[in-house]
Structure formats: C-alpha cells, structure tokens
Amino acid sequence: MSSDELARQKFWDELRTTTQARIGLGRAGNSLPTRDVLELNAAHAAARDAVHLPLDVEQLAGSVAEVGIGVPVTVTSRAASRGEYLRRPDLGRSPADLSAVPAGSADIGVVLADGLSPTALMHHGAPLLSALVEQLGQAYSLATPVIATQARVALGDHIAARGGYGTLLVIIGERPGLSVADSLGIYLTHRPRPGCTDADRNCISNIHPPDGLGYQEAARVVASLVAGARALGRSGVALKDTSRAVSVGPGADAELAQAPAGHEPAPADRRVTQQAGQ
User: Fold this and answer.
1) Regarding the domain with residue range 51-274, which homologous superfamily does it belong to in the CATH classification?
2) How much is the pTM?
C-alpha cells in the first residue's frame, strides 16, 4: 500500500470513529469491497429481524416488574398479526380490549410498546423505565406500567384515557435503520386523550446506549419536559426542551417556546429530538 493510500485509509479510519454511518467504504472494481457488501447485508437482515421478531411479553413483563412500580398489564391493538400491523397502521392505533388496564388516576402513566422494533424494547425497555422511575418517582404518582403489542404511539392515548393519566409516556421501538436496529423513542403527551395529533406530543429519540442517547440522559430530558408541560398545561409544539440550560425537577422552570410542528419519526440513525408520531 502506497503512502497516499495509507494516508487516505488513516483519514477515513479516524472519521469513522465519529459516526455509525457507512463512509469511505472504498471500491473493488466497479463495486464495494466484499467485506462491506457482507456487512451491509448483515445490517439489513438485522433491521428486518428487529421489525418481524415477536416481542417476548413474558420475559419483558418479568423485567418490568422488577423495576418496582407494579406488575405490568398487557394490551394489544386491533392488528391481528404482524403483517396486518405493518400494512394497516390505523389498526395499531386503536385497542382491541382495555379491560386489563386499571381505571384510576395517576400523574404519569408509562406504556411500553413494541412499535417497529420489538428488539429495541427487549434490549432497553426495562432499564430505561428504571431510569425514568428514578427521575420521576419521588415527585409524581406513577401508574401500573402497560405493555402494548402491535402498537403505534396513538394506542397510548386510549390506554391513558382508561387509566386516568395526567401525562403519558410511550416507550416504543423506533423504525430500524442500517446503522441501528434497536433504538427506542419516548413520546410524551400531556393531558392525553383519543384524537391527539402529532402536534400534541414531544419525542426523545435514538435511545440505545452506549452508541445512542443513554437511559439517564433520556430520563433527565423527560423530567424537564414533564415539568414544563405541567407548568404550561400542554405538550407538543408549544413546549421546548431546554434541559441542558435549566435544573431538572418538578420545581424547575422549563423555557416554553414555539417549536416546529411534528412529522413522521426519523430513522434510528438520526440523532434528533423532535415532535413526532408513529
């Protein structure tokens, strides 16, 4: 390898340490090197598996119960199968039966939804919930957690109406990308109700330590948004995350400002915080 080729290789090797994106892959004739082709195929297979592998509800429920805020109940959407869930997003937004959800009232309710990556929920759901309880449990009453299968974000609105939640947190598997197949998002809705739109929610995305957002940092942002939403009386486009600039806690004064309207959730490869819906 010539000195120019070594310098080029060193440049790309150093740059790759800053991103999970596939950059500087090189070439073999008119194609990519065999190694890179195989890695790309493996990443694509991992993304497909993340979407299609079913959630192990029993194992997840055991892990969630150990967090200490109650034995979780399980609900499902009107989508009867994974295939129908993927073809009919509308069915994933409405419940099949909510009788298992305890009726009552709580400051905050948490729904753990499989979404487009049950794998992400299995990997990160329970430890993320634990971090949220650590941040929120002393200041707010927390409802019994709910595990939702074949679920989209809006399914949480129906669960919240049944459970009487003041603020809803939906922890959901994000759409896999070719760099990350197990990323979670948290969707926060204050005063949730059926019929809420994307503009009523705030999203913390790309939660998948060690490469993405960590559990404690995500919980800290959520705590700031919850305090701000309760002060403002609503969440979504009117609520801006300023957790890096203010102290976190129920007494913290989060800055409230206009933010851009929501849109469809970004792939897990993008490290963003935005208002969105799934």
Assistant:
1) Ethanolamine ammonia-lyase light chain (EutC) (3.40.50.11240)
2) 0.82
